[in-house]
Amino acid sequence: MSVKSILISQPHPGGKKTVYDTLAEKHGVKVDFHPFIEVVGVPARELRKQKLRILNHDAIIFNSRNAIDHFFRIVEEMKVEIPPTMKYFCTNEGVSLYIQKYTQLRKRKMFVGKGTEASFFELLKKHKALNYLFPCSNIRKESIPNYLNEMNITYTEAIMYNTVNSDLSDLASVYYDILVFFSPQGISSLFANFPDFIQEDRAIAGWGKTTNAALEEAGLDNTIYAPTSEHPSMVAALNAFIISKKK
Fold first, then answer.
1. Rg (CA), the chain
2. In what helix (H) or strand (E) does residue 62 lie, and over which residues does it extend?
3. What pLDDT, in 10s, does the model give residues 234-247?
4. Most buried by CB count within 10 Å: which residue of 166, 207, 212, 232?
5. Domain 5-36+170-246 falls in which CATH fold?
């Protein structure tokens, strides 16, 4: 089979030209973006009902851009003024840099992991005495709260946004040669919208171990697995697959 069309189950990343645009031009394939999941903010009034007191905490844990967006949305809705003494613990540099959208980093105390859970947990371990606030989604990994509990670190988990399935009805009659997934939630949304989905001759690209496990559980074949040492990015994996199908 030659590849003519690819569906990325995420929003378009923005920008004038993306790596996926380059891939499409290189191979003459159609690449479409359609988010399979949506993020819906929890209203501040709901958090007030739960008696969330942001200023009772010494530090905030951020593990995603969504968490940052919705934390500062809630801060604004609650009319809370964050003191300059507040500390921010970020899982990686990308997350920490995103905070600049809302506040000047030089005025805040920032602690940044090196991209691995082990490095981030080491930061938390060094600051066990702090009272942390962990803004998160209704769907999130258990590793951070599990570690906080294991180390008897005081924290509050605040669900500030929900991850829900998108309406994919407009894709019902559209065929793509490759479907690309980056999370188990994308697989869940696929079957929520199309309970009778059959892979047939489509190739599926799945990013990471948790997505691969979700595909296996759903009885689907992860044809294009990434990341690997040979293909560290999804674009690299897709490029290699497309080339292999031209032979």
1. 20
2. strand 59-62
3. 999 999 999 999 87
4. 207
5. Rossmann fold (3.40.50)
Secondary structure element (H or E) that encloses residue 54, with its range: none
**What CA–CA distance (Å, rounded) separates 40 from 103?**
23
- For domain 40-163, the question of CATH label 3.40.50.10090 is answered with yes
Instruction: Provide the edge-to-edge strand list for the sheet that holds 132-137.
Output: 37-41, 155-165, 132-137, 59-62, 87-90, 109-112
> Rounded to whole angstroms, how far apart are CA atoms 30 and 52?
47
For residue 31, what are the β-bridge partners? 6
Q: Residue 199 corresponds to which tokens in the numbers above?
A: 């892979």
For residue 156 the two structure tokens come to 């509050």
On the question of a common fold for 5-36+170-246 and 40-163, the answer reads: yes
H-state helical runs in the chain: 19-27, 44-49, 65-78, 93-98, 117-126, 143-150, 184-193, 208-217, 234-246
Low-confidence ranges of the chain (pLDDT < 50): none
Residue with the two structure tokens 């990994």: 141
Burial of 89 (0-12, 13-18, 19+ CB in 10 A): buried
Asked if residue 31 lies in contact with residue 179, where contact means CB atoms within 8 angstroms, the answer is no
The single residue listed with the structure tokens 């999370």 is: 183
State the pLDDT at residue 16: 75
CB 223 within 8 A of CB 199: no
Sketch the domain layout of the chain as residue ranges: 5-36+170-246, 40-163
For residue 112 the two structure tokens come to 């940044």
